[in-house]
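Students often ask why inverse folding is considered easier than folding. One informal answer: many sequences map to the same fold, so there is more than one right answer. In these notes we will look at a single instance of the problem. The structure comes first.
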């Protein structure tokens, strides 16, 4: 079975593939101070009875400190298992049409590969709701064209609660109406509908550049742990692919190892 490991700034997501099927997935909190031994122990606990069934590993990390410990963990506990860590020089098959390809994060790379796999002849926009909200453009040929970054939902909520004495964190659910009748509803409205409007605005502008005049179709794919908060309010998102990054990790592994 193939173990995919996606280390993000907030969470580490594990996926276990049996062939092309995702047999299971788990989520744990990212801690930049975690050691290789702690990482191995936690992962083994989550995998349970599947821990000894791992025959290949594909991993990425956008956190440098964890990337270092991830490499140690893989070499120490999975020395005989074929593995790949996504980094510059790894074959992904994704052309990077940007000023500095080395700046492109591994998560954006594998998301591009996965989106093109799902829509092989259609331009795509991937909206990744994570620590930051990434809106990336992909050509119909599978080329990574660039994108836009915005502060993520949780970062924005934390900053607002920290800087405004009369405001606080609230449960992120839709309020009774857009016009909030109390402080909690005002915050909920601004967060949910505000972020949906931000995403829709960016996506519409990107779609106009990808398909001038709206002649060609453009798929808009949402992924990331916070995507469900915005899905119901967005006017531009056409599908939800919660395991998009894990799929991309599987595809990169298959490009570099015979399976």
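Output (designed amino acids):
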């Amino acid at each position: 079975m193939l173990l995919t490991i996606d280390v993000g700034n907030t969470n580490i997501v594990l996926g276990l593939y049996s062939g092309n099927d995702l047999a299971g997935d788990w989520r744990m909190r990212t801690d930049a101070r975690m050691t290789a031994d702690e990482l191995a122990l936690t992962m083994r606990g989550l995998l349970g009875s599947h821990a000894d069934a791992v025959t290949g590993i594909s991993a990425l990390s956008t956190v440098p400190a964890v990337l270092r410990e991830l490499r140690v963990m893989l070499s120490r506990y999975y020395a005989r298992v074929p593995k790949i860590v996504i980094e510059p020089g790894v074959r992904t098959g994704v052309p990077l049409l940007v000023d500095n390809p080395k700046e492109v994060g591994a998560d954006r790379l594998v998301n591009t590969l996965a989106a093109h796999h799902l829509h092989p002849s259609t331009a795509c926009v991937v909206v990744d709701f994570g620590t930051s909200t990434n809106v990336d453009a992909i050509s119909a040929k599978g080329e990574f064209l660039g994108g836009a970054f915005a502060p993520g939902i949780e970062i924005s909520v934390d900053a607002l609660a920290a800087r405004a004495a009369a405001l606080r964190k609230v449960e992120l659910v839709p309020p009774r109406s857009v016009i909030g009748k109390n402080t909690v509803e005002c915050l909920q409205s601004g967060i949910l509908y505000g972020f949906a409007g931000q995403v829709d605005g960016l996506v519409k502008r990107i779609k106009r550049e990808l398909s001038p005049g709206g002649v060609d179709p453009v798929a808009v794919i949402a992924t990331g742990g916070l995507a469900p908060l915005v899905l119901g309010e967005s006017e531009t998102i056409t599908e939800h692919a919660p395991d998009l990054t894990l799929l991309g990790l599987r595809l990169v592994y298959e490009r570099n190892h015979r399976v």
